[in-house]
């Protein structure tokens, strides 16, 4: 076994992090030290990329703040990350969505992944078709 990988595994804190990918909208709760006080700051945005593996893995989050795009790189296993919450899962076809940097307005939106519920949504539509067929 590679000695470097062994040391990384021993030093790595095993946090329960959610699985997320590029295109997802997440909230990173990040610990910030100000003097002798510590507080948690939320950073919400779209994941632009995930990079690396093991202890050196990181991810980039982009948000729009006062009309200006701001990107921040977080180490995945940083001791300052309190938690990561997934708000939306996006539908993208790329692992790195750098094209979102140049997009403005509606083009900057990412489609949200929809789960289940297709049967429930299709059922009322099917009933309307039956009623319409009976009237004819």
Explain how this protein is built.
This protein has 136 residues and is of the alpha+beta class. The protein has one domain: SH3 type barrels. The protein is 20% helix and 36% strand. It has two helices and five strands, in the order H-E-E-E-E-E-H. It has helices at residues 3-11, 118-135, and strands at 25-34, 37-51, 58-65, 68-75, 81-88. The protein has a five-stranded antiparallel β-sheet with strand order 4-3-2-1-5, with no helix packed on it. Strand 1 (25-34) and strand 2 form a beta hairpin. The chain starts with a helix and ends with a helix.
Q: Can you tell me the CATH topology?
A: SH3 type barrels
CATH architecture: Roll
Integer count of domains: 1
Indicate the mean pLDDT.
Answer: 83
User: Got a strand count?
Assistant: 5
Helicity level: 10-25%
The SSE order reads HEEEEEH
Task: Please outline the major beta sheet.
Answer: 5 strands, antiparallel
How far from one another are the termini? 75 Å
- Molecular shape: globular
Beta-strand percentage range: 35-45%
Pick out the low-confidence regions: none
Radius of gyration: 21 Å
Q: How many helices in DSSP terms?
A: 2
In terms of quaternary structure, the protein is: single chain
* CATH C-level label: Mainly Beta
Order of neighbouring strands in the sheet with most strands? 4-3-2-1-5
């Amino acid at each position: 076994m590679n000695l470097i990988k062994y040391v990384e595994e021993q030093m790595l804190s095993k946090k329960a992090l959610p699985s997320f990918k590029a295109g997802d909208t997440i909230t990173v709760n990040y610990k910030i030290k100000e003097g002798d006080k510590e507080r948690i700051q939320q950073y919400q945005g779209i994941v632009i990329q995930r990079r690396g593996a093991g202890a050196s893995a990181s991810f980039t989050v982009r948000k729009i703040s006062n009309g200006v795009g701001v990107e921040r790189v977080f180490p995945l296993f940083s001791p300052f990350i309190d938690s990561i919450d997934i708000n939306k899962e996006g539908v993208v076809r790329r692992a790195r969505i750098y094209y979102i940097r140049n997009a403005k307005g509606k083009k900057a939106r990412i489609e949200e992944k929809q789960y289940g519920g297709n049967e429930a949504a299709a059922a009322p539509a099917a009933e309307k078709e039956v009623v319409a067929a009976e009237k004819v």
